[in-house]
Amino acid sequence: MGVFAGILGCQAPPPHQAGPVSAEVHLAPTDQWIRPAGQTAAFPGRPVDLVAAPDGKTIYVKDHRGLVVLDSATWKVLQELKFPEGGSSWHGIVITKDGKRILASTSQSLVWEAAINEQSIEFRRKYTLPGIEGQSSSAPAGIVLSQDETTALICLSRNNALAVLDLATGKVLKQISVGIAPYDVVLSPDGRQAFVSNWGGRHPRNGEKTAASAGTPALVDVRGVAASGTVSVVDLSSGTEVAQIPTGLHPCDLELDAARGLLYVANANSDTVSIIDITRREVRGTIVVTPAEGLGFGSAPNALSLSRDGQTLYVANGGNNAIAVVPLKDNADPKPAGFIPAAWFPGGIINDGNHLFIANVKGFGSRTPQAGKPGWNSHGHLGTVSKVEIPDATTLVKQTQQVMQDARVPRMLKAWERAQSPAKPVPVPKQAGAPSVFEHVVYIIKENRTYDQVLGDLPQGNGDPSLCVFGREVTPNHHALAEEFVLLDNYYCNGVCSADGHAWAMEGYATDYLEKSFGGWARSYPFSGDDPLSFAPTGFIWDQVLMKGLTFRNFGEMSKTQTRPRSASFKDVWQDYQAKTGRITFEHEIDIETLKRYSSPEAPGWQMRVPDAIRADVFLKEFAEFEHTGQFPNLTIIFLPSDHTSGTRPGNPTPRGASGR
Question: Among residues 296, 478, 528, 581, which one has the fewest Cβ atoms lying within 10 Å of its Cβ?
Fold first, then answer.
């Protein structure tokens, strides 16, 4: 953990490899500079939500492990307290009016209550909120206390319900059905109604296209991507949902302006904030919060904070690593006046009138050392919380210039420029629409290895040989390709696990759903594309190919494979493959309809008991047919995951054996 001051300025630091340049400056694998304004407190967690003590002296942060306590004056970490059981959910922390108790939700079926003492906090009680028919976790998320604080209203994501919890008895009094995957909840000024944001929107009607999300049919578009977002209006006296208001996609954080009767909704997958008139129960306006007109999708507004006078809305843009400052006074068409630099992927925000307190989910990346181990591990999270003085107009201009530079906005706008005149085909065109020399691309997806682990022994690369564990002897083909073509020694992977890694590989983006799930993958672990709520609204790489009228074939990506018989070991599979007896067969499951339609029915997906040699043979068999017909696809994806390895588990192969060499 540490505390240090942020810097101000609009000129980007000099080029550098990904990682820390100094205590204040980091370069993310996305090639975005991380230079947060104000003061930064860092700790080994992924913070997703936060709340202030009533007296303002303490900030309580919810990270993927539990709670972190910060002194708001010194900005020092006072305490880190893990949940006794379970990991943190995406959202949900609340403090009582007297400042003596905190409630925080987990990713499973628990809400923990912590008692606040003068020097520390400690967990005193847990509330259990069972899943549907008690068979699974309920995945509690957002929490709000009733006006008399005798009950808590809690979003149960997997139950598609709002729970009413009696805090005296610990019993759930009722569960009120709402939309799909409720995330946040706020109370109306009179306490008689609740407003609930629904990640998956409304329930589908008969005949509409659906895909399963944690057991619930969710409305999707032709690509299989979630296609609805709503806010539920709940009458608490009758215990029923009385209306649903359509919003942008993936509505998450809510902020209520009680004086004006307006509800603000952050739509993470639409890059917008909806403004709802709670009396009319309709959207009155939409705020676009991207840093520049014409910029592609990816700002991910996922958290909100309203100034105390109701004149300014602060929006956490996770994808821009910034806070959008939106003036609201007498503004019929609100838009950002500027942006404040945050750390990597801000995901929670509050303010006290003078300062913003920002929970940065990814913070400075994976930079917490693993005890006794060299190098870095992708799970060595180093999350941060920023304390930033609310800027005046002059400072905001400077901060906005820095955000534009650090978030690569000018470069991205330039990349979106279309080629204006015919150009000579080149391997990598500089502008969209310009021709390339390539007609066919073979995209090979492998698993969970860094450059150093595989190619760190190449003296011509920017690698560390001490970290090379799968060198030339184990990976001769990788070495041959690198030496003949290109090293890519400073090409960085942004994923830290299979769930977000496959999203980056297939969508070029990881959604708010993925970035906040590290306390426990409550709804799904969607590395195989099995949850439409986790997908980016821009779709997949194959969608772009097919929309251009080009051809595509998939060999195993986002597929799950089971051996028949299930008891077959790697050795059994390997021996059967070598002997070609055919006694062991495979069953494959692909959830995304479009991908399934363009996939080889014989290609194995994720299954560590299948050597990559079998996967390669399936491709080579079809490749021979392509040679014969001349119909080789424009895009071919081949999944070869055996470099994931099975560690040192008994009965599993060594890395060399896993590849089928």
Answer: 581
